[in-house]
Design a protein that fits this description.
The chain has 410 residues and is an alpha/beta fold. It contains 15 helices and twelve strands. It folds into two domains: 11-194 and 390-408, Glycogen Phosphorylase B (Rossmann fold), CATH 3.40.50; 207-387, Glycogen Phosphorylase B (Rossmann fold), CATH 3.40.50.2000. 43% of the residues lie in helices and 14% in strands. The relative contact order is 0.14. The chain binds uridine-5'-diphosphate. Uridine-5'-diphosphate (UDP) is lined by residues 48-49, 52, 201, 229-231, 259-261, 291, 299, 318-321, 324.
């Protein structure tokens, strides 16, 4: 059973991390927005980075008196199979867009449109799944924004061609990396995703708790621990991580922890988990953890216990797991894809890899050059503090709301 929800931190609680000036600035920016209303809509309440961010962004905007409501669209398995295929196709996979898939996509969106109310000053629709909800827009001053969290640098032409007319009805689009901007008739903004340093996922933990979690999962802290935390998704390349680990372990002692779980909008998880188990075989040094979505403290403990963190994605919107690892000062090895290079500056805040062999080499190198690895970890934490914390994200939202509401004269 999920534990009882933990009370959200308040703005002042962030002062000890980011300083008083940052908090004052947020209050200043929010002054003219008091009483305005915002609705955020996405496709899952748990699992994945978008839910993770909304969980914190929504109460913080509320504390600044910008009343923010979060709604999740609903759909059957057929809907989420189509949206997952769209997701993969927008990341560049081959796909045949059928009329049937389009009908499923549009009919669930239509059901959600009829069920939901949109009376807010600003409506923010996250990702492609609910993009057609723009059809609910009425004449009037309300502003609609499409917040895209995925890598659009090389989208499947048919799927993008199908979605684009919806996107161009919005007032603005937000992308997570410069390289994801498309040719669009609407303004595009760059928002880096962020983590909450005070959340259960990222706060500092007592070492006794970290030890307890490791004991529970059979992880030996006296040996190096290499960890990847990710949904069991092929684009996160968990099988590639297993292969890299097996290559590296020929030269250096280590254990591999693969911690993951599902998201309610991702039907492929169980199949991929099966592929991972097959690649691992009976290797006693690989610990696979299929965790429910309410294990933030356990994931935090696993990240804190790690000697190295790997995120060997083949495609990635941004990779919050990378941000989480860097914030914890962990030497991080990550695929040079999507938004990851914004976080991992090669040989400065972590290392970037392009292949199984490259990943294996870096595991071996960092485990045998611990002072260099520790310096990467320190630099990584500083980089996150400057750029990817929740307070920076709240600031960007407040500025965008000001711009949108001024142009909409709401
Ligand atoms: N996560 C989790 N449990 C899991 C796997 C992932 O809580 O079993 C979290 C992870 O810590 C991170 C988010 O889900 O906060 C994943 O975000 P990311 O941007 O890395 O990937 P996405 O899943 O959105 O593609």
């Amino acid at each position: 059973m999920p534990p009882a929800p933990v009370p959200s931190p308040h703005l002042d609680d962030y002062q000890s991390i980011v300083g008083a000036a940052v908090i004052d600035e947020l209050r200043f920016l929010a002054r003219d927005l008091k009483g305005k209303t915002v609705k955020m809509v996405n496709s899952t309440a748990v699992g994945g980075g978008v839910a993770e961010m909304l969980n914190r962004l929504v109460p913080l905007l509320g504390e600044l008196e910008v009343a923010t409501h979060w709604d999740v669209i609903t759909g059957g398995n057929d809907f989420f199979e189509v949206t997952k295929a769209f997701h993969n196709a927008l990341h560049g996979s081959a796909y045949e867009l059928t009329r049937h898939a389009q009908e499923i996509f549009l009919s669930y969106n239509e059901q959600n449109r009829q069920r939901m109310q949109f009376n807010e000053d600003v409506v923010v629709i996250h990702d492609p799944q609910p993009a057609p909800l723009i059809r609910a827009r009425q004449d009037g001053p309300s502003r609609w924004v499409w917040r895209c969290h995925i890598d659009l640098s090389n989208p499947h032409p048919q799927v993008w061609g199908f979605l684009r007319p919806f996107i161009e009805q919005y007032d603005a689009a937000i992308v997570s990396s410069q390289s994801f901007a498309r040719q669009l008739s609407i303004p595009q903004y760059l928002f880096y995703p962020c983590i909450d340093p005070l959340s259960e996922k990222n706060k500092e933990l007592e070492d006794s708790f970290v030890q307890k979690v490791c004991d529970e999962f059979g992880i030996d802290r006296s040996r190096p621990i290499v960890t990847q935390v990710s949904r069991f998704d092929r684009l996160k390349d968990p099988v590639g991580v297993v292969q890299a680990f097996k290559l590296a372990r020929k030269y250096v002692d280590c254990q591999l922890v693969l911690a993951g779980g599902g998201a309610s909008d991702d039907p492929e998880g169980a199949i991929v988990l099966g592929e991972v188990r097959e690649a691992v075989g009976s290797d006693p040094d690989v610990i696979i953890l299929d965790l429910p979505p309410w294990c933030a403290l356990e994931i935090n403990a696993l990240q804190q216990a790690s000697t190295l963190v790997v995120q060997k994605s083949l495609k990635e919107g941004f990779g919050l797991t990378v941000t989480e690892a860097l914030w914890k000062g962990k030497p991080t090895i990550a695929g040079a894809v999507g938004g990851i290079p914004n976080q991992v500056i090669h040989n400065l805040t972590g290392v970037l890899v392009h292949s199984v062999e490259g990943c294996a080499y870096q595991i071996r190198y960092l485990l045998t050059h611990l002072e260099f690895a520790a310096q990467l970890g320190r630099n990584g934490r500083e980089h996150v503090k400057e750029n990817f914390l929740m307070t920076t994200n709240v600031q960007r939202w407040l500025l965008l709301l000001q711009i949108l509401l001024r142009s909409g004269a709401a």
